[in-house]
Amino acid sequence: MFIGLTGGIASGKSTVSKLLKDLGIPVIDADQISREIVKPNKPAWQKIVDYFGRDILLSNQNLNRDKLGEIIFNDETAREKLNQITHPKIISEIKKRAEKLKEAGEGTVVADVPLLIEINMMEIFDEVWVVYVRRETQIKRLMTRDQIDRETAIAKIESQMSLDKKKGYADRLIINEGTKDELKDKILSIWREINAEKNSSNCS
């Protein structure tokens, strides 16, 4: 089974990803891939520098992610251009890694992809899991996590697709309104369900 895991900022997606890893399930991290493909002199790095200029580089030639983030946060055209450069490479690498894991005998593989729905990746997965919190919970958690004011938190949240819209794409909706232990119990319960379904199909 190939599972796509997504959510929104401060929803708890990274915690779910870690809990799945703790269960021994291989997790492909799209954010990690996005960092790897833009290392100095890689094709995506070159295209980004050609478009945005060398002002977005640090002294060691790595991208200044804060500066680039600020540009795309305020400029939709620039954000779209960056996505055009990076998204196809990220998707291709996720597929490649998933195939390798399956060939190695892994029955279940998870891909943690923040923009899974936005870049229309749903069809490559057997199931899409969305980690969901109410908007007010999301605002408060983001304010606490990043030590920012409410207005800044709302601006960050509104720069993404809303969780209310994302939940419409979920095969499994993981509501994360409680404690970390409660979230862990939910993940364990889902994992038991999946194993029960596998055993049932193997017996039939």
UniProtKB/TrEMBL annotation:
<comment type="function">
    <text>Catalyzes the phosphorylation of the 3'-hydroxyl group of dephosphocoenzyme A to form coenzyme A.</text>
</comment>
<dbReference type="InterPro" id="IPR027417">
    <property type="entry name" value="P-loop_NTPase"/>
</dbReference>
<dbReference type="GO" id="GO:0005524">
    <property type="term" value="F:ATP binding"/>
</dbReference>
<keyword id="KW-0547">Nucleotide-binding</keyword>
<comment type="pathway">
    <text>Cofactor biosynthesis; coenzyme A biosynthesis; CoA from (R)-pantothenate: step 5/5.</text>
</comment>
<comment type="similarity">
    <text>Belongs to the CoaE family.</text>
</comment>
<dbReference type="Pfam" id="PF01121">
    <property type="entry name" value="CoaE"/>
</dbReference>
<keyword id="KW-0067">ATP-binding</keyword>
<keyword id="KW-0173">Coenzyme A biosynthesis</keyword>
<dbReference type="GO" id="GO:0004140">
    <property type="term" value="F:dephospho-CoA kinase activity"/>
</dbReference>
<dbReference type="GO" id="GO:0005737">
    <property type="term" value="C:cytoplasm"/>
</dbReference>
<feature type="binding site">
    <location>
        <begin position="10"/>
        <end position="15"/>
    </location>
    <ligand>
        <name>ATP</name>
    </ligand>
</feature>
<keyword id="KW-0808">Transferase</keyword>
<keyword id="KW-0418">Kinase</keyword>
<keyword id="KW-0963">Cytoplasm</keyword>
<dbReference type="InterPro" id="IPR001977">
    <property type="entry name" value="Depp_CoAkinase"/>
</dbReference>
<protein>
    <recommendedName>
        <fullName>Dephospho-CoA kinase</fullName>
        <ecNumber>2.7.1.24</ecNumber>
    </recommendedName>
</protein>
<dbReference type="GO" id="GO:0015937">
    <property type="term" value="P:coenzyme A biosynthetic process"/>
</dbReference>
